[in-house]
Amino acid sequence: QPRVFSGIQPSGGLTLGNYLGAIRRFVDTQNANRDSGIETIYCMVDQHAITVWQDPAALTRNTRELAAGYIAAGLDPAKSILFNQSQVAEHAQLAWIFNCVARMGWMQRMTQWKDKAGKNSQNASLGLFAYPALMAADILIYHATHVPVGEDQKQHVELTRDIAAKFNHDFGVDFFPLTEPVIEGAATRVMSLRDGSKKMSKSDPSDASRINMTDDADTIAQKFRKAKTDPDALPSEAAGLEGRPEARNLVNIYAALNDQSVDEVLRDVGGRQFSEFKPMLSDLAVAKLSPISGEMARLMQAPDEIDAILRSGADRARVMAAPILKRTYEIVGMVS
Ligand code: AQP
């Protein structure tokens, strides 16, 4: 039976990249599977967030804001299981087993580790290094078969398959499934508005590099107006975006927001200057995002309700996770 799991870190406010690359697709997956009995499980991965320093008050606020973002975008606690990772202890318990299955060399090859640890990797947390083993546990504690993610997380989902395969091989079992990353749509990699070679990220020090889901209409318009571009007009087909990363990024964002292909967008806007295209993009973004940010703001007025939704999601998640952890311990030979 297919089962879907994915998560987002409450390591800052939600960005347009998180929305287009992840949340919007979580909603589509939930709705497509509404009557099929396939479980869709979406987590706020707070234990991943603390692999780099998080101010405690900000972590609390960001976790609730992320939950509000999930719900405002269309995730329904009656249809999907929504919870925060630290409330289901089985994730961390399975992660320990996987820390003992995964190899140091596998972790060292991860591009996210290299990017985030930087040159001073001796000073990075042990948790940041082991991040992919916890992510494998998040997925496999539910025997999830499909993980909708943005392009940047593909390598970690592949590592999850390696961990599952090594566990199955080492213990001579066929227990953990080999999970598939699901990377689809026009915006699997939304880039920074200031640098077309860097992905848009909630932890980028420059707020101008990203659209936050909570930005108001004026801020969105100003950020797109200032977004880096080149001096040429837009081409009339996708091939003309070759070697123009900033132009490609803005067209990709437009296409994703408007549910169109890049070629369809360029058929309409090809030949126009950015001075004309950017206001079109801002208007579209405001039209699509403002209902979500309005609903997020409303939900944030009632943090107790958000916490109650997360608690009941965690109760449902634990029911699925506990037997899988129990069986894992038996396979490993732990006495219970
Ligand atoms: N720029 C992006 N384009 C498309 N998808 C993206 N995702 C993140 N950025 C983009 C997708 O969002 C999901 C959640 O990601 P995450 O919060 O767990 O971690 P991340 O990928 O490291 O995201 P950020 O925003 O860059 O966070 P920080 O700055 O804390 O590292 C994933 O499915 C991811 O692919």
Automatic annotation (TrEMBL):
One of the protein's GO biological processes: tryptophanyl-tRNA aminoacylation
Catalytic activity, reaction form: tRNA(Trp) + L-tryptophan + ATP = L-tryptophyl-tRNA(Trp) + AMP + diphosphate + H(+)
PANTHER family: TRYPTOPHAN--TRNA LIGASE, MITOCHONDRIAL
Keyword annotations: Aminoacyl-tRNA synthetase, ATP-binding, Cytoplasm, Ligase, Nucleotide-binding, Protein biosynthesis
Subunit organization: Homodimer.
Stated family: Belongs to the class-I aminoacyl-tRNA synthetase family.
Protein name in UniProt: Tryptophan--tRNA ligase
EC number: 6.1.1.2
